[in-house]
Task: structure prediction
Amino acid sequence: MTEASPELVLRPLTAADEPALSTFTCVTYKEPWTAPVQEMIRDHLAGNLASGAVSAVGAWAGDDLRGVAAWRIEGNICHSVLLAVRTGQRRQGIGSMLKTAVLSEATAAGLAVVVSQVHWDNEAMIELNAHFGASIERIPGDAEYCRCVIPLAD
Result:
């Protein structure tokens, strides 16, 4: 008989979650991006949460942080600034759960769109955004990144 894994629970992240954030590991879509993403999560996210610069949600299995999504609001736009899933936990629906949470928060706040800046090599994130109805746009003068824009219902 195998032991069932704990159910995932989404909850807002706070600066008090710094211990879990400081040990979060993720292998990103393409190197050399793992170190900068982990640094952003480990060294900067808790401080940005404490200052109110960003909001974030975590996907938890018991006490284990499995994924993180962070965003900031400017006017009527939600900027999705981070979505990462713990190493070894990809392709289990965690990214979709996190993206759904960001979209729900933005909709509840009455915002018009959710915008993500995504590297062209990050096919998984482009596909995830497209799954939620994003248009994929070139950023003028930027050959490395595209803009994923998800319109929200009125």
Q: What stands out?
A: The chain has a mean pLDDT of 88.
